[in-house]
Amino acid sequence: MAGGVDHPPSLFHPIFEAITDHGEHVPAWLTFGGMFDVHQAEIFFDALLCSALALSTLVLLVFLGRSKLEKVPGKLQNILESTVVLLRGLTVDLLGPTGPSYLPLMGTLFLYIFFNNLIGLVPGLKSPTMTVSTTLALGLTTFICVQSIAVKVNGVAGYLKHFMGDILALAPLMFVIHIAGEVAKPMSLSLRLFGNIYGEDNIIAVLFKMGFPVWIPVHLPMLAFGIFTAFLQAFIFTSLSCIYVQGFTEHAGHDEHDHGHEHGHAHGQGHGHDHAHGHAHSH
Fold it and tell me: Using CA of residue 216, residue 221, residue 227, residue 229, what is the dihedral sign?
């Protein structure tokens, strides 16, 4: 049961039953110390195993693609290389020339989310991204990474200056507003991803239940649409993450440009003064 919709048991249901003695004795690590009931604990258990399966599949594909690199790429190598090129293009489009330096982070986010979204379309498995625990973990991880990048790029003083704004008198107010905005970002990222995948999986479950008695696959069109949704939600999450990074790196770029401009202007004035002084002396 998820939001009033009956979902077929996953392939991992027998394992959960064995671990919990048919729901009678659920380990504390599955209930977060009593925060989850038995049903929520099973959803969390499914999310853990499905996420591990999705990650293992991704690692296996990369390993197979790298093990037989050829000058004339085969199908798998071609797909992997095209994926890297597209993701690199995304980072360059959103972050400029420094974009490729963020490719490991953004590429990992995209592929991890995409495979976690896709795995829910496999019969007997569920999308880990239809659980708040998974999407919130992704949102918090992205938040920590973005803040770390901001401190590295701007320095501690520049990082704090970003929150205070340009008008000193409004700095206390702007600081609170910017902090609230930064805290809201991981919540926005996680809830957007959760809501879309959760709704999609529930619709598929309802359609599957409608066609199950007479084995009419009325859910197949939604499964096809789910492939597009899996890509779209991974793309949106990654794009927003790039935009969050760009907000800090662009600020640092402007500061460097302004400093360079002022330095060049002062140097030009000094050079002009020396030139005029020398001209007067020779005269």
Answer: negative
The amino acid at 158: G
Q: Give the Cα separation of 73 and 96 in Å (integer).
A: 29
Question: Are residues 113 and 234 in contact, defined by beta-carbon separation less than 8 angstroms?
Answer: yes
Tokens 């662009």 sit on residue: 250
Q: What is the pLDDT of residues 49-103, one digit of tens each?
A: 999 999 999 999 999 988 888 888 888 889 999 999 999 999 999 999 999 999 9
* Encoded tokens for 243: 């935009």
CA 75 – CA 79 distance, rounded (Å):
6
Give Cβ neighbours of residue 276 (< 8 Å, ≥ 6 apart): none
Please give the model's pTM, rounded to 2 decimal places: 0.82
Give the Cβ contact number of residue 208 at 10 Å: 19
How far apart CA 77 and CA 197 sit, in angstroms, is: 29
Tokens describing residue 227 = 């492939």
Average the pLDDT over 238-258 and give the result.
75
Check if the beta carbon of residue 248 is closer than 8 Å to that of residue 150: yes
Query: Cβ distance 110 to 235 under 8 Å?
Result: yes
Q: Which residues contact 6 (CB under 8 A, 6 or more apart)?
A: 205, 209
Report whether 244 contacts 181 (CB < 8 A).
no
CA–CA separation, 160 and 172 (whole Å) = 12
Side chain identity, residue 134? T
The residue count of the chain comes to 283
162 with 150: CB under 8 angstroms? yes
- Mean pLDDT throughout 139-155? 93
